[in-house]
Amino acid sequence: MKKHSSWISALMAAVMTLVLAVSWSQPAQASGTLKIGMEANYAPYNWTQTTSANGAVKIDGTSSYANGYDVKIAKIIAKKLGKKVIVEKTQWDGLLPALTSGKIDLIIAGMSPTAERRKAINFTSPYRTTNFVVIVNKQSKYAKAKYLTNFKGAKLTAQQGTLHYDLIKQLPGAKREPASKDFAAMRESLEAGTIDGYVAEDTELTSFQMMDSNITGVNLSKMKGFKVSSSDAEVSIGVKKGNDQLLSQVNKVLAGISTSERNKLMKEAVQQQPQTSTKKENWLVSMLKNYGQMILEGIGMTLLISLVGTIAGFFIGLLVGIVRTIPEPKNKFKKGLLAFCKWLLSVYVEIFRGTPMMVQAAVIYYGIAQFWHINLNRTVAALIIVSINTGAYLAEVIRGGIISTPKGQFEAASALGMTHNQRMWSIILPQAIRNCLPSITNEFIVNIKDTSVLSIISVSELFFVGSTIASQSFQFFQTYLVISVIYLFLTFTITRIFNLIEKHIEGPENYNMMVNQVQVGKQEGDK
Amino acid sequence: MADYKDNEIILNVQHLQKAYGKHQVLKDISFEVHKGKVMTVIGPSGGGKSTMLRCINLLEDPTGGEILFHDQNILDENYNIPRYRSKVGMVFQQFELFENKNVLQNCMIGQELVLKRSKEEAKKIALENLKTVGMDPYIDAKPRQLSGGQKQRVAIARAISMNPEILLFDEPTSALDPEMVGEVLETMKKLAKTGLTMIVVTHEMAFAKEVSDQVLFMSDGYVAEHGSPDEIFNHPQSEKTQKFLANFRGPQI
Ligand SMILES: Nc1ncnc2c1ncn2[C@@H]1O[C@H](COP(=O)(O)OP(=O)(O)O)[C@@H](O)[C@H]1O
Ligand SMILES: [Mg+2]
To answer: Which of A241, A464, A516, B136 has its CA 20 to 30 A from that of A392?
Structure first.
């Protein structure tokens, strides 16, 4: 049957995608490369730039480059090991899972070797030792603090999941505000006055001061009673447990980098880190000039994932919807088999509708790598996740469409002698799908917006690009305004396009009388 | 005068029963349908007329009795039901045209999928039949663009395009505005004259009287009376039939 074979080919395509995804992916320890995980958003340790200036390294899967103290160190290590550096831009919270699941070889991300982290991964000897500071405005009363107790009443924060945030507890009477996602957000809050200061390292102070001369830092490390374990004041390189060979190799290389060379590299990094544009230039012009390419790529990625995800999800949903509406066969065995299939499918629908896509993304992306040692390309992972998720939603939509097609349509088709398959394919499904089109459009729109949660697995879609730009340009409002206008433009255009498709399927409003075939009017009681 | 019973029996229904759970809708229905003849079925609403028709083409599973089509029991496990249905057409009270197809496609789809006719052949036959029902000017129209009477005529064309051996009608004019009843009844009369075997459930007594070879009066799941139009309409024996016809005539005239 013709229609059936087109089904099979759709299924084949899905299987092929999976096979391809698996074959594209390579184990992280592939001989010639050294995969480094970093946020590329934590200057001067690491940041994202659009050119390869100052020896920046291409970020895997994008056309942007990473640079910074970490990149400089990574290049030295890679050179000594005879390998090529590959930067995997990864969100802070995703760094440990990426390492333990084997997606990266090393974390070089300005990370301190805390006892807690040591439970999960190993650390090398430090590649930098830092002072801790509270960053405040110059005219703030806390700017003159001499003792830890001077911070009484200060509203302080620090980056989420870092040692810095715990350090606030050592300042008696300081108000610990909710932890912040990244430094850019804290700088913004400090300038806006919603916090009095934030705890960070001296490098953050240096780089912030280059941009805002009204900023100063209070050095905590020199204050009486301030306790930081030596390991906490240090930043080290994370290595997966058990990978002792790499650990000792890296340690050997680090031992060869002197303190003065380290200071030199850090100074370079602070000087090279991206600066906010000179105030004269129009912010929109400068944003488009500096980040236009990144934004376009973000749009492309968002469209790719949501379009492919919606189409693949539609076919999954169609398949599930069809199977779930097969009438009960008389044969006992077939009946049992069908019941089992239907049960499996309802479990699938329940699970994927009942959990957030962000969680699914993390579980699938990191879980598959950790337990099956399959290193999925993150774009492919994103496509699979969005497809499966959309499939679960559309399965219900399509089932509803099938069920709500009037019973008379089934019966009229049966009365002509059509089999169940013939009825479905030529009568019921075309009507059901037609009736589901608004919901499918809606799902597409939702997907365009919801791909933003894929930032958890560091897919560089529009929102991810937006937060990178915001963090680097410190133009939060402007950046997110531009990003939301783009989202609005995308969803608006797509809605229009789908409306046109619906109209097209509906057919013309009027029909043509075939007047030449017979004279009309003989039986025309009605107009 | 040759008796209609001289013709071969196509459909033989014996002691047909149908129950929905405990609700026994058809209790004991028996009749024979002869080739080329028209049987009308009349009776009060809720008497089981639709259920009986739906049992004949197996839209409902009978719970008892036998239905023989050319002496073969269609309720046998191995009986080819889609093939049987393609030989037994049905015209519904609510037309049930395929909403996603235009008039011509409505009349072609069954021929192509079920009878495996070529597109050209199916189109030719569909056009002929649409011409018979006077709907050939509307081949491009979608069902929602047609009036009730027009829809029902297309539904008839769709059914006869399958060249059925029997055509079942379930109150084909009951959902129509009064001024459209005539056009559909005319079409059906025309079909009857071509020698098509028909079972017609109807409340159009004049039509029943004029067209049928035998009339079945159904009430409460039984065949209350069965005979020629003259016997049923002019000399009804059963009290139920008399009452029904009396009630019927009252408001009509
Ligand atoms: N699917 C069903 N489930 C339960 N009862 C039904 C169903 N279909 C019909 N009936 C009942 O069967 C009886 C006969 O209905 P029907 O055959 O439609 O009568 P008629 O066509 O003569 O008016 C009615 O009492 C009706 O309520
Ligand atoms: Mg009825």
So the answer is: A464
